[in-house]
Records
---
Amino acid sequence: MNNIRPSAADYLKHAKYFIHILFSFTMLAARRGPISLLRDMRRYPWLFILLRAPLLMGRLAAGRTGLYREANELLISFIVKQMIDVLVRTLKRDDTFILHQEMVPPEISTAMGLSVWPAELLSILLPLLDSHAAEAYIDRSENEGIPPDICSHVKMTLGIVLSGEMPPASVIVSSNLPCDGNMTGYEITRRKNNAKIFRLDIPFNFYNNRAVEYFAGELKRMIAWLEENTPGRMDWERLRQICEERNRMAEKEIELWEMISARPAPMAAEPVYLGHLWAFNADPGNPAATRFFHRIADMTRRNLESGVRAVPNERFRAVLWNPPLLHFSELFRWAEEAYGITLVIDSMTYNSQPLIDTSTPDTMLRDLGKIIMQGPMARHTRGPAENYIDDIFRIYHRFNLDMVWVAGHIGCKNTMALNQMLREACREKGVPLLIIEYDLSDQRICSHEGIIRQIDHFMQNVMKVNRNGEDPPDPRRGREGKDFTTIHYAYRSEE
């Protein structure tokens, strides 16, 4: 058990970042104007949920100390500030505003002078801030006839659209990835907005030059369509600057990966995966994101050089594969304290694509296309199965891990069969595997307590440890004071 308590300096830094967040919210009011902001909050009730960012910062910081604690505080402060910038551009609702799917490279639209709003952004942020935030939107989708068995991420996004709380757009850009539910969702969004839509055709077989050239042609076609249907005009020099800034950000992240491969890890969990999730998907190529990664890498280096562990009681190292558990934001902090488990990296963070060649417009489009085609949401959902399984084992060895955690999101039909294949592969290689059965956004499907029971069962019966490093209880010995849940799962393993 981690018995180290935050110092006075830790609390002072927490207060500093708390003030930074409040200042960002104040700037939103100043830039929008109080009357406009009140109208915005009436039209978009989720703005009230965004005000809970300081509470999220507190949950992530609790029980952590030093630079690891500060990195989490810096992370939330950074996301809030960048979110405010995106909101200011979005709430203006001028003719440069477009709705953007997460599988479409935002660098291109940004270089064209367009204001990009990722439609899935709120479906990621809101459950992190409030574990029940998704429920009303999911219910709205299902009540409107959306099938209950599709991905809750899609259902929540559609619930926001159907509730009239998605910023309206006359232009939408989407793709044929990552799943049928997502594609159907964008058609519903188009009808709701009476909008024009461009759908990128990402090739299924994208492992050869022909596929790369085809998708680069699709991106050119998208640019021409946007120039025809929006005020945006491609500025190739601006795109080059954005791509070079993205390269600098990626170089710093690769440097971070090299440092966290050390054992014990000098940095872990949210600053690694959540920082990537925002910076590389919401606003890549933003110098502010590069500065964030510089600071996280610097904190990591200082811990590494000083021999300071991110998790003082580190005993096990894990990777999380598939989507993060959005509504259970404190899960990894709990795992650190309960079992000394350090989440080193996750599948959404790890992307082995090379840097973008910025020498010509064609090379930039080809490499931006490769990032999409070889990214986790394409590479692992389209197959072949070896992509999914081999990447897991590659990262398992690269980061010197002890176990693999797979977030078995019940709404992700694409990975259900893959996870069964993964079970067999892990069994053959002797790699401990935990597949957590849960729902990405809706904790009514599997509660936080249910997730914890699954982890307890795995750690006690596979890893042979109990919480806080104790040996797992033996139900045959009948010791007093034992937890019924622990006994129940241990007994099941004996059957």
Note: Residues 473-495 have pLDDT under 50 and may be disordered.
---
Amino acid sequence: MNFIETRGNDGVKPIEVPFSEAILNPSTSFGGLYVPAYLPKLENDFIVNHINSSYKDLAYDILKAFEIDIDDAEINKALALYDNFDDASNPCPVVKVKDDLFVHEQYHGPTRAFKDMALQPFGSILSSIAKKRDEKYLILAATSGDTGPAALNTFKNKENIQVACLYPDGGTSDVQRLQMVCEDGKNLKVLGIKGNFDDAQNALKKLLASQTFKDELEKDNIKLSAANSVNFGRIIFQIIYHFWSYIQLLKQEEITNGDKIYLVVPSGNFGNVLGGFYALQMGLPIEKLLVASNENNILTQWLNTGIYDIRGKELKLTLSPAMDILKSSNIERVIFSLFGADRTKELMEDLNNNNVFQMSEKETKELQKYFSATYSDDTFGTATIKEFLDNGYLMDPHTATCIKAYKELKEKPLKTVIYSTAEWTKFSPTVLNALNKNNNKYSDKEALEEISSKYNAVLPQSIKELFSAKINHSLVIEKENIEQEIVKFIRES
């Protein structure tokens, strides 16, 4: 299967490229994104045939359905990384918390967040291709907290790969920051920037599109790629676990094959829920995708009104910082799927030029066939964390945002899966404030220790070790100096 561009073709770039090319060089015509030329339709009995499959086998068969141009040996090598998760047989368990409510725990990988589900195998495949081609790549990553640690972990000391990771200084939890700044791979550079995640992501997109930057890298025979979900290599792995949600409910005899379910996804850059949208289009019985936002509720506004408006909006720093995003990259892929390249180009240019776009009433209704959305504030989130722990389940603040959508958006009495995208350990001060019903300023270390001892919660060794680890990346820079620092890094390493 080949990949095409969301905003159409400029006559310079190839009209279609294979998967390997799309992930190595994700920059496309007019600033668009790569998407599959079509989505594979899985046979009617695909799900029931995988009810006893391992996650790796399910993943392999879905990847093969996309006909990606990656050798079977490389695919299997990449998928074998799931063996390093807490439970190799079930890397992302689905846990029942109420009669009709299940939590899909996506945080059982090395960096304790859902980004491991995609970035572990993606990193393996990308570095293998680079080595096979005898090409060197600079991988850019911009993070609101979880992409960074996961990208650094998967690419650490990989041959033919260097990584520059941008994070907003003060815009992540301390654990997330330590996971990045303590990394010691010789091929890694971590840069704090004075600004927010949108600033980091905009900088990444500008660099990906900058010919002068590419020319500068070319002097050292280095090509440019990205680890953010602008890269379809991330998205393809984010389709798989939605099928796993359904299969787990079947295995637990909570549904029968063909029953529809709701999926509730906490959303920032829209990659996780996009995977669900693609899964639905490939045949997964999803009634609707319920989108949970925090107070940066641009996605809720868009899905409810058809208007995406960030004029005069300032990013609010919330207790669910991975969702503190105003400009979500992956809405573009949804718009393309529903309305085609010309309309996508028109709307995205409106957004880039005017910070707003407006869809027609007909387009909005089409969008709402697949998505409903709501948002919650920090007060709701902290009360929810306390409520669920009182009933025996410990969750992080991003998972808590899903409960509002679960309570308000369901139109039918169907089983519902919410996605827990990070372990409580990533945001322990917020969790402890919620449990103790106070606003005390806990350090991450003391909050982790109190929660683990008081509530008998497991504290992973990798998290414990962070607080005695050496800090290897202490630089915080103005966003205008990003390119200069990255060029300096590749020349010195």
Note: The two ends are 37 Å apart (CA to CA).
---
Amino acid sequence: MSSRKEFIVIFFVNKAIGHGNSGVEHAQFYRADIFRQAHQPFKMIYSDLLPKLHEHAAEWHLQESEVIGLYDYFLSDDPDDYLRNGLREVSEYHEEVLWDQTHTQRRFDRQTTGGYLETIQRVKRYSDERKLYLVDDDRVILTNGNHKIMWHYRDSGSQKKQPVSIRLFNFKGRDYFFQTYEALVMFFYEQLNQTYPNSLYIIDRGQEHEEALIHLKRQGAGVKLLDVVHAAHLAQFEGAHPLWNNYYQYMFDHFDDMSAVINATEVQTQAMKADLSRVGQKQLDKITTIPVGGVETVMPARHWSGKEARFVTASRLHPEKHITQIVSAIKLLRDQGLNATLTIYGDGGDIPHIKKSISELKLQKFVTLAGLSQHVIDDLKQYDAFVSASYSEGFGLTYIEAISDALPIATYANFFGAQELVKEGLNGHLATFERHQDATEKNVVQLSHAMAAVFQSTAHYADLSRGAEAVAKKYQTQEIAKKWSALIRRVNHES
């Protein structure tokens, strides 16, 4: 392979996409916008079984030619054409459920947006330990005409159920058998490498992807691997031995196989280098910083009327985001005489818990669940300050979105996003916190102090807003695009 040959295509590697996504997916969407503007070809790989993949891809403004679904590929009449052009026709999703005489769901039939039929057969068994009947997915069959994939599930204990004994029928005219899902993923990348032999893979999520691609690389394939770190990389040190975040353990164990490791903040980059140097790891220069989000435009500084403190937050509504702590902080502020309100944007499984908290604190008139926002930056403009109660943020895209609107921020001083993007007294206020559950009440008090500090006076608010404007200018899209371009050129040159 010529050392000067450009990458045929760049792949963004992930497991899933949905209606409500995490920061990982939003980071990918932002990166996609940058690459489109630079006319750099890319495709997004999704490996999970996603019956509404194409519905969600359209929802997040992805073109069919930009999306590769693993199961779409294996069930395609023309896999090579699918890789080049994407799905030619999207199907409408619908499902049917078969119930047995005991009112138990025993079979699901789903017409997926990818055009194939998904059949899930469920098994019912009695648990002597739990003294109840359990119903689990047992067998899955995917069919598209004379193309078929089928497997059983195996209970893997601490992990979710794993597909085993996978049979693939009529893929390019041949039948295949894979004992494990990991073997199927390996086969997928072997096939992908035949079509795109000189490619760059930006891995956002999935150890099985890392395993397959590293195997390919060690077999002589001309692949290059970039691993993007979206969360805290280190759990703790046990003596002199690092306990890495489970998401990144495999990457650190195979650090030499990576062309680059990308952090969203310089704070994390320096921390990672220090942690790796403690265990004697070399080649630390491959660790670099590229923000996972930025802004096209920066709004001018704002002023506060002094009447109502309108807080807003936006995130995946998951317990780890601690939205109920923000609700409790609003209660404290109102009891102290500040006319504080809160609007919550997002979707997720913690909504019932949040609604309960709002009701118990009698805040229905002052706290609003606004649903998922498709235009966060525009929506945030309606408010006075952004607030977050997350204990950990690899970057915090919503911080940047808020800063671009010149909104002051009140947040816990989490690693790494808050400590990079929020400067105490410049564009917001940071609250100390403790991670153990018994500290929740104390944490809420600290958060309420940071929130109140934003509105201590109209003059101070104006200073914070001017500070937000100044910080935002450091994260403009064109500057981030330059960082990606430089990194890709470097990796390509090294090939």
Note: Residues 1-5 have pLDDT under 50 and may be disordered.
